[in-house]
Amino acid sequence: MATFVKKHLDGKVRWQAIVRKRGLKAQKKTFDLRGQAEAWAREVEREVGWSEAGVRTTKLTFEALAKQYLDAGLGRESRVKFWITALGPRKLTDIKPQDIKAALDAYSSAPAEVFVGNGKTRARASGKKRGPASRNRLRSTVASIFRYARHEQLFTGDPVRDVAPAKEPGGRIRFLSDEEDARLRAAAQKPERWEKLHLLVLMALATGARASELTEKVRWERINWSERTVPIDDTKNGDPRVLPLPAPVIEELMKHRPVDKHGKVIDKPTGLVFGRAGNPEQPVTVRKHWLAAVHGEVRASERRGEASRGGPRDGRAPAESRRKVTGVAHLA
User: Fold this and answer.
1) How many beta carbons lie within 10 A of that of residue 233, not counting itself?
2) What dihedral do alpha carbons 218, 309, 136, 298 form, nearest 10°?
3) pLDDT of the chain along its 332 residues, tens only?
4) Residue in 240, 125, 108 with CA at minimum distance from that of residue 165
5) Which residues contact 20 (CB under 8 A, 6 or more apart)?
6) The whole model's pTM is what?
7) What is the CATH code of the structural domain delimited by 178-326?
8) DSSP 278
9) How far is the CA of 297 from the CAs of 203, 266, 290, 301, 308, in angstroms?
10) CB 15 within 8 A of CB 4
């Protein structure tokens, strides 16, 4: 625990930092500015590596901590593995802010990857640069790992605190025009398109749900046909939502109800609405169907924008209602 004492020496105000840890001799140093004293105290506490419970952790490696973090059901495995590769065998007390920054800089300088393959996921360079958002997600992951260590009283240091996040752009805010809306609906209904693309577009426009939410969360057995709604859990924002299903969506859903081997409609179907034909628990990869239909003219986020905005076609619902449906917290 660090304390700071204001002193008057030689007619000047100076600050003395005192770091005390149980079982260790107190360390003291005097500075001209309090900020300098606080920075020095943080560094001393980090190097000492003692928990508040008095358990020394100099032998604990980052890899061991990260695996414990994963075993607790926390974090995204791919991001945690990145940090295991970057910092793995190093002791927690040896990890400095410059080590975190160096790993993030190396990540940002490498080309972005896309995952391709039929059933076998593999990565290839996309030719694009990695953006600040993905860099910040990695920074958040390693910050969470050290926060977990503090919570479990394994380590009190925080080398991530002094690594500033990258500045992210504000993004593009645009809504579909009436002409674009009509073109999108027409393109989705062309005979050569994927048979459920029109259903996907209708649901996206009506609900504002993300593509991943529609393809991975919407299930046949959870559709409430009488209420014309379907609940989805475990959303990106962490809050469950109930999506409304207007009459055109219900009508299109009826066309795609699963059938048995004799071609008879199943009374109580189960599985994902947008599941694969041979495995209804595996979501279809819709990206190629989407790109084939719109040729890069419309982004999926703009479909969400339409539902967030409302408009003359569907009426403009109150902001609170649209927030609950779309999960967009900043609507006004």
Assistant:
1) 10
2) 80
3) 688 888 888 888 899 998 877 656 788 899 999 889 888 888 877 666 544 444 444 578 999 999 999 998 888 898 999 999 999 899 988 899 999 999 999 999 888 776 554 444 455 555 677 889 889 999 999 999 999 998 888 888 889 999 999 998 876 666 778 888 888 888 888 877 788 888 998 888 888 888 888 888 899 999 999 999 999 876 655 567 889 999 999 999 999 998 888 889 888 889 999 988 888 898 888 887 777 776 645 554 455 445 544 443 443 344 444 444 444 443 33
4) 108
5) 1, 2, 3, 26
6) 0.48
7) 1.10.443.10
8) S
9) 19, 37, 10, 12, 19
10) yes
Both tokens of residue 36? 């300098």
Token pair 């590596």 is found at 49
DSSP state for residue 14 in the 8-state scheme: E
The answer to whether the beta carbons of residues 210 and 304 sit under 8 Å apart is yes
How far is residue 211's CA from residue 286's CA, in Å, rounded to a whole number? 8
According to the 3-state scheme, what is the secondary structure of 83-128? HHHHHCCCEHHHCCHHHHHHHHHHHHHCEEEEEECCCCCEEEEEEE
